[in-house]
Amino acid sequence: MIPRQPFPRHRAALLGAICLATLPAPLVLAQDDFFTDLNLDLKDNGPDRDAPFSVLGWVTQEVSYGYRRPDPPFSRTDRQLTQVETSLFTQLDWQLPDSLNFRFSGKAYHDAVFEIEDDTPYTPDERSLYRNRFEVRDFYLEKQFDNGLYLKAGHQIHAWGFAEYLRVTDLINTEDQYTLGQQDLEDLRLQVPSVQLSYSLQDWTLDAVMTYHAGYNDIAPAGDEFDQLLALQRDSWVIDREDPNSRAELFLRASTHYAAGDVQIVAGDYNNNQLTLNGITGIEQSGPVFQLVQQRMQSLGVAANRVNGSWLLFGELGLQRNAPVTPLNLEALYNPGGWEERNRLLGAFGVEYNGFSNTLLSLEVDNTHTRGDLQQLAIDRNQLGVGTRLYWTGLNERVELLSVWNRLANDQGSLIRVSLDYNWSDNWKFGLLWVDYSADRNSLYYGFRNNDMLQLNARFSFQR
């Protein structure tokens, strides 16, 4: 445990911690959201394809090794195994009478690293969360009516927009940020309790989604090497996660498909999925209380793409109203009244090219423009980020190579992720993953720069 120390002496140390925990979506998601929507398209080659229900799933084993030494006071400060995780994912689909469909899926985890690396001083929060856990994923009913109305209610994912590195019109779902850039593809977006109502009107589809108690992004527990609140874990300091003023959120979308592409118009009144500082109390008393909350925001955006031969062009433009801004000025950072809000203009433009054999290349450039007076916040008005991706398949698509490089917004650092997978059969898949982090001393990600890792993984898939 870090000994108790006076609050004012640690303002500089806290800067990075609070900023990491409350980063605007463009910064955090720039290194997490580097994959498009996950579509599970498993071949139906069984004898019961006309049965009213189906079951699919997979068992995964992941063994990860951190080959650098994170700085104290993270629990792990040596080169060692960081994960020996076994997981089971199962999904049930059931066709009920009257064109009603039901889906339930869940995932169970067990990480044996806490027994293997027992000498590592893991915190109780780490052991409690990671040793054994179970997550309910999809849990919903859906129905398509004859009049063009579509209803879907329950725990579900709504993947909107086209950009991969910056959330402009993809507003709804929270995300798994237990790690940064190491998540499995299907684990990146998290399901939220919601009701979706859709209606087809000529060439347009109108969607309305209402969520309730969707929560905020999952972050690592105390002491973990990706603990975004590590510098606040002190004896006399209190972190108070307050409930938002309203737990209900509303999102609207109008989308259409034309000959060469798609267009979406999206609006939302919602709670920020990242916690932000709402105030600090008790500074002169027993210890500071950091009040973190999901600020209420509004967004309006448009997204479009167009296919031209081997080229795919896409772009998004969105306006955020009342977006909380993470200041880099200490006085503004420790404002007892909380952080200031600004209107922001978000833009993303990308291009993909598949003219080479078995290869897909992509480039995306993002920018966040903050309006208003920024002198007291000490942030750049325009924060630029860049992401590239190379995807290649060989040996009749048995071998898959995915390489991603992401330069974080505002020169905060970079991330490299390379995965190589071999599909041994329809059931077995083996893979290798490498993730590398880079950040200079002034970066908000400096504390995570030594979390580079190598991973071996295997997956057995099944369906009935």
Describe the structure.
By secondary structure, this protein is mainly β. The protein has one domain (8-65, 76-342). It is built from 5 helices and 24 strands. It has helices at 11-21, 25-28, 113-116, 124-130, 330-333, and strands at residues 53-66, 80-96, 100-111, 132-144, 149-156, 174-177, 189-190, 192-201, 204-212, 218-219, 238-241, 248-258, 261-271, 276-281, 289-293, 296-308, 311-324, 341-353, 359-370, 382-394, 399-407, 414-423, 428-438, 453-463. A hairpin with a 2-residue loop joins strand 8 (192-201) and strand 9 (204-212). The longest helix is centred in the N-terminal third of the chain and has 11 residues, at 11-21. The radius of gyration is 23 Å and the shape is globular.
List keywords for this structure.
about 475 residues; mainly beta; 3-stranded mixed beta sheet; 24 strands; about 5% helix; disordered N terminus
Quick structural gist:
This protein has helices spanning 11-21, 25-28, 113-116, 124-130, 330-333; strands at residues 53-66, 80-96, 100-111, 132-144, 149-156, 174-177, 189-190, 192-201, 204-212, 218-219, 238-241, 248-258, 261-271, 276-281, 289-293, 296-308, 311-324, 341-353, 359-370, 382-394, 399-407, 414-423, 428-438, 453-463.
Radius of gyration: 23 Å
Overall, the morphology is: globular
Poorly predicted regions: 1-47
Mean pLDDT: 87
Spell out the helices and strands N to C: HHEEEHHEEEEEEEEEEEEEEHEEEEEEE
Helix percentage = under 10%
Structural class: mainly beta
How is this fold's topology laid out?
Layout: H1 11-21, H2 25-28, E1 53-66, E2 80-96, E3 100-111, H3 113-116, H4 124-130, E4 132-144, E5 149-156, E6 174-177, E7 189-190, E8 192-201, E9 204-212, E10 218-219, E11 238-241, E12 248-258, E13 261-271, E14 276-281, E15 289-293, E16 296-308, E17 311-324, H5 330-333, E18 341-353, E19 359-370, E20 382-394, E21 399-407, E22 414-423, E23 428-438, E24 453-463
Parallel strand pairs: 6-10, 11-15
Antiparallel strand pairs: 1-2, 1-24, 2-3, 3-4, 4-5, 5-8, 6-7, 8-9, 9-12, 12-13, 13-16, 14-15, 16-17, 17-18, 18-19, 19-20, 20-21, 21-22, 22-23, 23-24
